Amino acid sequence: MRYIDEYRDGRLAKDIARQIATLADPARCYHFMEFCGGHTHAISRYGLEDLLPQNMQMIHGPGCPVCVLPIGRIDAAIALAMRPEITICTYGDLMRVPGSNGSSLLKARTAGADIRMVYSTLDALRIAEAEPDREVVFFAIGFETTTPPTALALRIAIAKELRNFSIFCNHVLTPAAIQNILESPDVRKLGTVKIDGFIGPAHVSTVIGTEPYEFFAEEFQKPVVVAGFEPLDVIQAILMLVRQVNDGRHEVENQYIRAVTTFGNEKAQTEIANFFELCESFEWRGLGEVPYGAVRLRPQYAEYDAEKRFSMVTPAVKDNPACECGAILRGVKKPADCKLFGTVCTPDTPMGSCMVSYEGACAAHWTYGRFREHAKASERGRAVA
Amino acid sequence: MCLAIPVQVKEVLSDNMAKVTLDGVSKIISTALVEEVKPGDYVLLHVGHALAKIDPEGAERTLAVIREAALGEAA
Q1: Alpha-carbon gap, residue A174 to A143, rounded angstroms
Q2: Which residues pair with A288 in a beta bridge?
Q3: Nearest-CA distance from B72 to chain A in Å?
Q4: Keywords assigned by UniProt (chain A) (predicted)?
Protein backbone atom coordinates (compact mmCIF):
# COMPACT_ATOMS: atom_id res chain seq x y z
CA MET A 1 0.00 0.00 0.00
CA ARG A 2 1.61 3.20 -1.15
CA TYR A 3 2.40 5.80 1.52
CA ILE A 4 1.98 3.12 4.20
CA ASP A 5 4.36 0.20 3.64
CA GLU A 6 7.46 2.30 2.96
CA TYR A 7 7.03 3.98 6.38
CA ARG A 8 7.03 0.62 8.19
CA ASP A 9 10.57 -0.53 7.37
CA GLY A 10 11.83 -2.14 10.60
CA ARG A 11 15.49 -2.09 9.56
CA LEU A 12 15.43 1.67 8.98
CA ALA A 13 13.62 2.16 12.29
CA LYS A 14 16.39 0.27 14.10
CA ASP A 15 19.06 2.35 12.35
CA ILE A 16 17.35 5.55 13.44
CA ALA A 17 17.01 4.22 16.96
CA ARG A 18 20.78 3.67 16.98
CA GLN A 19 21.28 7.29 15.95
CA ILE A 20 18.95 8.38 18.74
CA ALA A 21 21.02 6.35 21.22
CA THR A 22 24.23 7.92 19.91
CA LEU A 23 22.85 11.44 20.18
CA ALA A 24 21.19 10.99 23.58
CA ASP A 25 23.20 12.54 26.37
CA PRO A 26 23.72 9.78 28.98
CA ALA A 27 23.89 12.42 31.72
CA ARG A 28 20.25 13.43 31.29
CA CYS A 29 16.76 11.96 30.91
CA TYR A 30 14.42 12.67 28.01
CA HIS A 31 10.65 12.72 28.53
CA PHE A 32 8.53 13.14 25.44
CA MET A 33 4.74 13.18 25.36
CA GLU A 34 2.88 11.90 22.34
CA PHE A 35 -0.40 13.73 22.70
CA CYS A 36 -2.48 11.63 20.32
CA GLY A 37 -3.95 8.18 20.97
CA GLY A 38 -3.04 7.21 17.40
CA HIS A 39 0.63 7.70 18.26
CA THR A 40 0.23 5.81 21.55
CA HIS A 41 -1.22 2.92 19.58
CA ALA A 42 1.61 3.00 16.99
CA ILE A 43 4.28 3.13 19.73
CA SER A 44 2.77 0.13 21.53
CA ARG A 45 1.93 -1.87 18.42
CA TYR A 46 5.38 -1.58 16.86
CA GLY A 47 7.28 -1.75 20.15
CA LEU A 48 9.05 1.55 19.51
CA GLU A 49 9.77 2.11 23.21
CA ASP A 50 11.95 -0.99 23.22
CA LEU A 51 14.17 0.61 20.58
CA LEU A 52 14.81 3.73 22.66
CA PRO A 53 17.70 4.17 25.13
CA GLN A 54 17.05 3.62 28.86
CA ASN A 55 17.09 7.34 29.64
CA MET A 56 14.27 8.14 27.21
CA GLN A 57 10.63 7.81 28.17
CA MET A 58 7.46 8.25 26.15
CA ILE A 59 4.51 9.68 28.08
CA HIS A 60 1.11 8.84 26.66
CA GLY A 61 -1.08 11.94 26.45
CA PRO A 62 -4.85 12.47 26.54
CA GLY A 63 -5.39 12.83 22.80
CA CYS A 64 -8.23 10.42 22.23
CA PRO A 65 -11.62 12.13 21.93
CA VAL A 66 -13.48 8.96 22.89
CA CYS A 67 -11.39 8.50 26.03
CA VAL A 68 -11.84 12.08 27.23
CA LEU A 69 -15.61 12.25 26.72
CA PRO A 70 -17.19 12.68 30.18
CA ILE A 71 -19.56 9.92 31.35
CA GLY A 72 -22.36 12.50 31.65
CA ARG A 73 -22.31 13.13 27.90
CA ILE A 74 -22.82 9.41 27.22
CA ASP A 75 -25.64 9.34 29.80
CA ALA A 76 -27.26 12.34 28.10
CA ALA A 77 -27.10 10.61 24.71
CA ILE A 78 -28.54 7.38 26.11
CA ALA A 79 -31.41 9.29 27.76
CA LEU A 80 -32.17 10.97 24.44
CA ALA A 81 -31.97 7.67 22.54
CA MET A 82 -34.67 6.24 24.80
CA ARG A 83 -37.20 8.72 23.39
CA PRO A 84 -39.31 6.89 20.80
CA GLU A 85 -39.03 9.50 18.03
CA ILE A 86 -35.22 9.69 18.18
CA THR A 87 -32.63 7.94 16.03
CA ILE A 88 -29.04 8.42 17.16
CA CYS A 89 -26.27 8.00 14.60
CA THR A 90 -22.66 7.80 15.70
CA TYR A 91 -19.21 6.43 14.91
CA GLY A 92 -18.47 2.86 15.98
CA ASP A 93 -15.86 3.99 18.53
CA LEU A 94 -18.57 5.36 20.81
CA MET A 95 -20.85 2.33 20.97
CA ARG A 96 -19.08 0.52 23.82
CA VAL A 97 -18.04 3.54 25.89
CA PRO A 98 -19.44 2.97 29.38
CA GLY A 99 -21.93 5.41 30.84
CA SER A 100 -23.23 5.29 34.42
CA ASN A 101 -24.16 1.98 36.03
CA GLY A 102 -22.67 -0.16 33.30
CA SER A 103 -24.78 1.38 30.54
CA SER A 104 -23.59 2.04 26.97
CA LEU A 105 -25.09 2.96 23.61
CA LEU A 106 -24.71 -0.68 22.59
CA LYS A 107 -26.71 -1.88 25.61
CA ALA A 108 -29.31 0.86 25.03
CA ARG A 109 -29.71 -0.42 21.47
CA THR A 110 -30.21 -3.95 22.73
CA ALA A 111 -32.87 -2.53 25.03
CA GLY A 112 -34.72 -1.17 22.00
CA ALA A 113 -33.31 2.32 21.41
CA ASP A 114 -32.79 3.26 17.75
CA ILE A 115 -29.02 3.76 17.65
CA ARG A 116 -27.17 3.29 14.40
CA MET A 117 -23.48 3.07 13.73
CA VAL A 118 -22.37 5.16 10.76
CA TYR A 119 -19.06 5.47 8.95
CA SER A 120 -19.57 9.05 7.88
CA THR A 121 -21.69 12.12 8.61
CA LEU A 122 -23.05 11.65 5.08
CA ASP A 123 -24.57 8.30 6.12
CA ALA A 124 -26.42 10.07 8.94
CA LEU A 125 -27.73 12.62 6.44
CA ARG A 126 -28.94 9.83 4.14
CA ILE A 127 -30.85 8.26 7.05
CA ALA A 128 -32.47 11.62 7.88
CA GLU A 129 -33.47 12.06 4.24
CA ALA A 130 -34.83 8.54 3.82
CA GLU A 131 -36.78 8.57 7.10
CA PRO A 132 -38.43 11.99 7.44
CA ASP A 133 -40.58 10.79 10.37
CA ARG A 134 -37.52 10.11 12.55
CA GLU A 135 -35.61 12.77 14.47
CA VAL A 136 -32.04 11.91 13.44
CA VAL A 137 -29.37 13.12 15.88
CA PHE A 138 -25.72 12.80 14.90
CA PHE A 139 -23.65 12.20 18.06
CA ALA A 140 -20.59 14.12 16.87
CA ILE A 141 -17.18 13.52 18.43
CA GLY A 142 -13.56 14.04 17.47
CA PHE A 143 -10.74 16.55 17.22
CA GLU A 144 -10.15 19.11 14.48
CA THR A 145 -9.87 16.24 11.97
CA THR A 146 -13.45 15.13 12.50
CA THR A 147 -15.05 18.56 12.93
CA PRO A 148 -15.02 19.64 9.24
CA PRO A 149 -17.09 16.60 8.13
CA THR A 150 -19.70 17.52 10.78
CA ALA A 151 -19.72 21.13 9.55
CA LEU A 152 -20.15 19.93 5.99
CA ALA A 153 -23.09 17.72 7.01
CA LEU A 154 -24.72 20.76 8.58
CA ARG A 155 -24.21 22.78 5.41
CA ILE A 156 -25.85 20.05 3.32
CA ALA A 157 -28.72 19.59 5.82
CA ILE A 158 -29.47 23.33 5.65
CA ALA A 159 -29.24 23.37 1.84
CA LYS A 160 -31.59 20.39 1.58
CA GLU A 161 -33.89 21.83 4.26
CA LEU A 162 -33.69 18.64 6.30
CA ARG A 163 -35.64 19.64 9.41
CA ASN A 164 -35.25 16.26 11.15
CA PHE A 165 -31.46 16.38 11.44
CA SER A 166 -29.48 17.74 14.39
CA ILE A 167 -26.08 17.46 16.02
CA PHE A 168 -25.02 16.57 19.57
CA CYS A 169 -21.67 18.33 19.46
CA ASN A 170 -18.63 16.93 21.33
CA HIS A 171 -15.83 18.26 19.15
CA VAL A 172 -12.69 19.00 21.16
CA LEU A 173 -9.54 21.00 20.41
CA THR A 174 -5.94 19.81 20.49
CA PRO A 175 -3.74 22.84 21.28
CA ALA A 176 -5.93 23.87 24.25
CA ALA A 177 -5.56 20.43 25.82
CA ILE A 178 -1.80 20.27 25.32
CA GLN A 179 -1.55 23.63 27.07
CA ASN A 180 -3.80 22.39 29.88
CA ILE A 181 -1.43 19.49 30.62
CA LEU A 182 1.28 21.97 31.60
CA GLU A 183 -0.65 24.70 33.36
CA SER A 184 -3.96 23.53 34.85
CA PRO A 185 -4.56 23.82 38.62
CA ASP A 186 -4.60 19.99 38.78
CA VAL A 187 -0.91 19.95 37.95
CA ARG A 188 -0.19 21.13 41.48
CA LYS A 189 -2.49 18.51 42.99
CA LEU A 190 -1.42 15.52 40.90
CA GLY A 191 2.16 16.55 40.51
CA THR A 192 3.70 16.40 37.10
CA VAL A 193 6.60 14.80 35.34
CA LYS A 194 9.01 16.86 33.38
CA ILE A 195 8.07 16.93 29.70
CA ASP A 196 10.91 17.89 27.35
CA GLY A 197 8.91 17.94 24.15
CA PHE A 198 5.69 16.98 22.40
CA ILE A 199 4.82 14.93 19.34
CA GLY A 200 1.82 16.61 17.72
CA PRO A 201 -0.76 14.70 15.64
CA ALA A 202 -0.31 15.09 11.88
CA HIS A 203 -3.90 14.40 10.90
CA VAL A 204 -5.18 17.21 13.13
CA SER A 205 -2.54 19.45 11.57
CA THR A 206 -3.66 18.64 8.01
CA VAL A 207 -6.61 20.82 9.07
CA ILE A 208 -5.15 23.37 11.53
CA GLY A 209 -1.55 23.45 10.24
CA THR A 210 1.50 23.70 12.49
CA GLU A 211 1.03 27.38 13.26
CA PRO A 212 -1.31 26.99 16.30
CA TYR A 213 1.59 25.39 18.20
CA GLU A 214 3.96 28.33 17.68
CA PHE A 215 2.64 30.29 20.67
CA PHE A 216 2.74 27.19 22.85
CA ALA A 217 6.35 26.28 21.93
CA GLU A 218 7.47 29.82 22.66
CA GLU A 219 5.43 30.37 25.83
CA PHE A 220 6.33 27.04 27.48
CA GLN A 221 9.72 26.68 25.80
CA LYS A 222 8.90 23.16 24.67
CA PRO A 223 9.72 21.72 21.25
CA VAL A 224 6.80 20.34 19.21
CA VAL A 225 7.25 17.98 16.25
CA VAL A 226 4.08 17.33 14.23
CA ALA A 227 4.39 13.73 13.06
CA GLY A 228 2.64 11.01 11.09
CA PHE A 229 1.37 7.71 12.50
CA GLU A 230 3.56 5.11 10.82
CA PRO A 231 6.45 3.77 12.91
CA LEU A 232 9.15 5.53 10.87
CA ASP A 233 7.27 8.82 11.21
CA VAL A 234 7.17 8.47 14.99
CA ILE A 235 10.80 7.45 15.42
CA GLN A 236 11.97 10.23 13.11
CA ALA A 237 9.96 12.69 15.22
CA ILE A 238 11.70 11.41 18.36
CA LEU A 239 15.08 11.96 16.67
CA MET A 240 14.01 15.51 15.75
CA LEU A 241 12.99 16.15 19.38
CA VAL A 242 16.31 14.82 20.72
CA ARG A 243 18.20 17.14 18.40
CA GLN A 244 16.11 20.12 19.54
CA VAL A 245 16.59 19.30 23.22
CA ASN A 246 20.34 18.83 22.76
CA ASP A 247 20.58 22.15 20.91
CA GLY A 248 18.43 23.94 23.52
CA ARG A 249 15.86 24.82 20.83
CA HIS A 250 12.06 24.90 21.27
CA GLU A 251 10.63 25.14 17.79
CA VAL A 252 7.63 23.75 15.97
CA GLU A 253 8.87 21.31 13.34
CA ASN A 254 6.88 19.43 10.72
CA GLN A 255 7.78 15.79 10.12
CA TYR A 256 4.66 15.15 7.99
CA ILE A 257 5.54 17.39 5.08
CA ARG A 258 3.66 15.04 2.77
CA ALA A 259 0.30 16.51 3.86
CA VAL A 260 0.78 19.12 6.60
CA THR A 261 1.50 22.79 5.89
CA THR A 262 2.05 25.77 8.19
CA PHE A 263 -1.50 27.07 7.85
CA GLY A 264 -3.37 23.83 7.15
CA ASN A 265 -6.52 23.25 5.12
CA GLU A 266 -8.17 26.66 4.90
CA LYS A 267 -11.26 25.28 3.19
CA ALA A 268 -11.86 22.94 6.15
CA GLN A 269 -11.11 25.72 8.65
CA THR A 270 -13.67 27.96 6.97
CA GLU A 271 -16.32 25.22 7.24
CA ILE A 272 -15.58 24.92 10.98
CA ALA A 273 -15.66 28.69 11.51
CA ASN A 274 -18.95 29.04 9.64
CA PHE A 275 -20.86 26.72 11.93
CA PHE A 276 -18.95 26.44 15.22
CA GLU A 277 -17.66 28.76 17.91
CA LEU A 278 -15.34 28.20 20.90
CA CYS A 279 -16.79 26.96 24.21
CA GLU A 280 -15.34 28.94 27.12
CA SER A 281 -14.86 25.67 28.96
CA PHE A 282 -15.51 21.98 28.32
CA GLU A 283 -15.05 19.02 30.64
CA TRP A 284 -12.48 16.46 29.54
CA ARG A 285 -12.71 13.13 31.29
CA GLY A 286 -9.48 12.74 33.25
CA LEU A 287 -8.37 16.36 32.77
CA GLY A 288 -11.35 18.27 34.17
CA GLU A 289 -12.52 21.59 32.74
CA VAL A 290 -10.32 22.66 29.84
CA PRO A 291 -10.61 26.38 28.98
CA TYR A 292 -11.54 26.77 25.30
CA GLY A 293 -11.17 23.00 24.98
CA ALA A 294 -14.09 22.42 22.61
CA VAL A 295 -16.43 23.99 20.08
CA ARG A 296 -20.23 24.28 19.97
CA LEU A 297 -22.73 25.21 17.27
CA ARG A 298 -23.15 28.93 16.65
CA PRO A 299 -26.39 30.32 18.16
CA GLN A 300 -27.94 30.96 14.72
CA TYR A 301 -27.96 27.17 14.17
CA ALA A 302 -29.73 26.43 17.48
CA GLU A 303 -32.44 24.39 15.73
CA TYR A 304 -29.72 21.97 14.55
CA ASP A 305 -28.19 21.79 18.04
CA ALA A 306 -29.60 18.66 19.66
CA GLU A 307 -28.77 19.92 23.16
CA LYS A 308 -31.05 22.93 22.68
CA ARG A 309 -33.62 21.29 20.44
CA PHE A 310 -34.29 18.46 22.89
CA SER A 311 -33.33 20.31 26.11
CA MET A 312 -30.68 17.71 26.82
CA VAL A 313 -29.21 17.63 30.32
CA THR A 314 -25.64 16.50 30.99
CA PRO A 315 -25.40 15.09 34.52
CA ALA A 316 -22.14 15.48 36.45
CA VAL A 317 -20.82 11.95 36.97
CA LYS A 318 -17.63 11.20 38.87
CA ASP A 319 -15.13 8.55 37.80
CA ASN A 320 -14.41 5.61 40.09
CA PRO A 321 -12.28 7.15 42.88
CA ALA A 322 -9.65 4.39 42.56
CA CYS A 323 -9.20 5.19 38.85
CA GLU A 324 -5.81 6.77 38.10
CA CYS A 325 -6.67 8.05 34.62
CA GLY A 326 -6.15 11.70 35.57
CA ALA A 327 -2.57 11.02 36.65
CA ILE A 328 -1.93 8.62 33.74
CA LEU A 329 -3.16 11.17 31.18
CA ARG A 330 -0.63 13.66 32.53
CA GLY A 331 2.18 11.14 32.57
CA VAL A 332 2.51 11.15 36.37
CA LYS A 333 1.58 7.47 36.65
CA LYS A 334 1.70 4.47 34.33
CA PRO A 335 -1.21 2.12 33.55
CA ALA A 336 0.27 -0.69 35.67
CA ASP A 337 0.45 1.70 38.67
CA CYS A 338 -3.36 1.72 38.85
CA LYS A 339 -4.85 -0.97 41.05
CA LEU A 340 -7.89 -1.25 38.79
CA PHE A 341 -5.71 -2.04 35.74
CA GLY A 342 -6.22 -5.56 34.48
CA THR A 343 -8.38 -6.48 37.47
CA VAL A 344 -11.81 -4.88 37.22
CA CYS A 345 -10.70 -2.55 34.42
CA THR A 346 -10.02 -4.22 31.05
CA PRO A 347 -11.02 -3.30 27.48
CA ASP A 348 -14.14 -5.48 27.89
CA THR A 349 -15.18 -3.74 31.10
CA PRO A 350 -13.42 -0.36 31.04
CA MET A 351 -13.73 1.68 34.25
CA GLY A 352 -11.71 4.74 33.27
CA SER A 353 -11.11 6.83 30.20
CA CYS A 354 -7.70 5.36 29.28
CA MET A 355 -9.16 1.87 28.85
CA VAL A 356 -12.21 2.98 26.87
CA SER A 357 -10.83 3.25 23.34
CA TYR A 358 -8.14 1.01 21.89
CA GLU A 359 -6.08 4.20 21.50
CA GLY A 360 -6.06 4.91 25.23
CA ALA A 361 -2.83 4.46 27.22
CA CYS A 362 -4.24 1.64 29.38
CA ALA A 363 -5.85 -0.20 26.45
CA ALA A 364 -2.59 -0.02 24.48
CA HIS A 365 -0.66 -1.32 27.49
CA TRP A 366 -3.20 -4.11 27.99
CA THR A 367 -3.08 -5.15 24.32
CA TYR A 368 0.66 -4.94 23.70
CA GLY A 369 2.80 -3.51 26.51
CA ARG A 370 2.18 -5.99 29.30
CA PHE A 371 3.37 -8.92 27.15
CA ARG A 372 6.65 -7.17 26.46
CA GLU A 373 7.12 -6.40 30.13
CA HIS A 374 6.43 -10.03 30.91
CA ALA A 375 8.96 -11.13 28.25
CA LYS A 376 11.57 -8.74 29.66
CA ALA A 377 10.97 -10.04 33.20
CA SER A 378 11.43 -13.66 32.07
CA GLU A 379 14.61 -12.69 30.25
CA ARG A 380 15.97 -11.10 33.43
CA GLY A 381 14.96 -14.24 35.32
CA ARG A 382 16.91 -16.45 32.92
CA ALA A 383 19.93 -14.14 33.13
CA VAL A 384 19.94 -14.42 36.94
CA ALA A 385 19.58 -18.21 36.80
CA MET B 1 -10.45 7.91 16.10
CA CYS B 2 -8.71 10.76 14.27
CA LEU B 3 -6.65 8.52 12.04
CA ALA B 4 -6.73 9.00 8.31
CA ILE B 5 -5.46 6.62 5.62
CA PRO B 6 -3.92 7.33 2.23
CA VAL B 7 -6.16 6.23 -0.66
CA GLN B 8 -5.91 6.75 -4.42
CA VAL B 9 -8.55 8.61 -6.42
CA LYS B 10 -9.79 6.44 -9.31
CA GLU B 11 -12.68 8.50 -10.59
CA VAL B 12 -14.00 11.98 -9.93
CA LEU B 13 -17.80 11.97 -9.54
CA SER B 14 -20.38 14.77 -9.39
CA ASP B 15 -21.26 16.74 -6.20
CA ASN B 16 -17.69 16.74 -4.85
CA MET B 17 -17.57 12.98 -4.55
CA ALA B 18 -14.91 10.57 -5.79
CA LYS B 19 -14.31 6.86 -6.12
CA VAL B 20 -11.12 5.78 -4.34
CA THR B 21 -9.27 2.52 -3.76
CA LEU B 22 -7.06 1.12 -1.05
CA ASP B 23 -5.48 -2.24 -1.69
CA GLY B 24 -8.23 -3.19 -4.13
CA VAL B 25 -11.12 -2.03 -1.93
CA SER B 26 -13.25 0.69 -3.57
CA LYS B 27 -15.25 3.36 -1.81
CA ILE B 28 -17.14 6.53 -2.66
CA ILE B 29 -15.94 9.45 -0.56
CA SER B 30 -16.48 13.21 -0.30
CA THR B 31 -13.79 15.53 -1.65
CA ALA B 32 -15.65 18.71 -0.67
CA LEU B 33 -13.01 19.66 1.92
CA VAL B 34 -10.00 19.66 -0.43
CA GLU B 35 -9.09 21.59 -3.54
CA GLU B 36 -9.76 19.90 -6.86
CA VAL B 37 -8.61 16.28 -7.12
CA LYS B 38 -7.92 14.23 -10.23
CA PRO B 39 -7.60 10.50 -10.90
CA GLY B 40 -4.26 9.21 -9.67
CA ASP B 41 -4.03 11.68 -6.75
CA TYR B 42 -3.61 10.29 -3.26
CA VAL B 43 -5.71 11.81 -0.48
CA LEU B 44 -5.94 11.23 3.28
CA LEU B 45 -9.32 9.65 3.97
CA HIS B 46 -10.99 10.26 7.33
CA VAL B 47 -14.60 9.24 8.18
CA GLY B 48 -15.65 9.32 4.53
CA HIS B 49 -13.99 12.63 3.67
CA ALA B 50 -10.71 13.54 2.00
CA LEU B 51 -8.91 15.82 4.48
CA ALA B 52 -5.77 16.62 2.51
CA LYS B 53 -3.95 15.73 -0.66
CA ILE B 54 -0.70 13.83 -0.29
CA ASP B 55 2.22 15.62 -1.86
CA PRO B 56 4.30 12.93 -3.62
CA GLU B 57 7.38 15.14 -3.51
CA GLY B 58 6.98 15.73 0.25
CA ALA B 59 6.58 11.97 0.75
CA GLU B 60 9.77 11.26 -1.19
CA ARG B 61 11.64 13.96 0.71
CA THR B 62 10.53 12.47 4.05
CA LEU B 63 11.86 9.05 3.05
CA ALA B 64 15.13 10.61 1.87
CA VAL B 65 15.52 12.40 5.22
CA ILE B 66 14.73 9.17 7.10
CA ARG B 67 17.28 7.19 5.07
CA GLU B 68 19.87 9.89 5.64
CA ALA B 69 19.14 9.98 9.37
CA ALA B 70 19.52 6.19 9.52
CA LEU B 71 23.07 6.54 8.22
CA GLY B 72 23.96 8.93 11.00
CA GLU B 73 25.33 12.40 11.50
CA ALA B 74 28.77 11.47 10.21
CA ALA B 75 27.46 10.25 6.84
Answers
A1: 7
A2: A284
A3: 6
A4: Iron, Metal-binding, Plasmid
In this complex, which of A4, A12, A268 lies closest to B51 when CB atoms are compared? A268
Q: Which of A203, A247, A269, A354 to mutate to test the interface with B (most CBs of B within 10 A)?
A: A203
CATH number, domain containing residue B64: 2.30.30.140
Measured CA to CA, the distance from residue A281 to residue A287 in angstroms comes to 12
Nearest chain B Cα distance for residue A72, angstroms: 20
The residue type at A61: G
Domain of B13, in residue numbers: 5-71
- Domain range summary for chain A, segments of one domain joined by +: 1-319
Q: Are strands A197-201 and A224-227 parallel, antiparallel or unpaired?
A: parallel
- How many beta-carbon pairs below 8 A join chains A and B? 136
What are the CA-CA distances from residue A204 to residues A55, A77, A259, A264, A314 (Å)? 29, 26, 11, 9, 27
- Local confidence pLDDT in tens for the 385 residues of chain A: 899 999 999 999 999 999 999 999 999 999 999 999 899 989 989 999 999 999 999 988 888 888 889 999 999 999 999 999 999 999 998 998 888 888 999 999 999 999 999 999 999 999 999 999 999 999 999 999 999 999 999 999 999 999 999 999 999 999 888 888 877 666 666 666 688 999 999 999 999 999 999 998 999 999 999 999 999 999 999 999 999 999 999 999 999 999 999 999 999 999 999 999 999 999 988 788 899 999 999 999 999 999 999 999 999 988 888 988 888 887 788 899 999 999 999 998 888 888 888 888 899 999 987 777 777 777 777 776 6
pTM summary value = 0.93
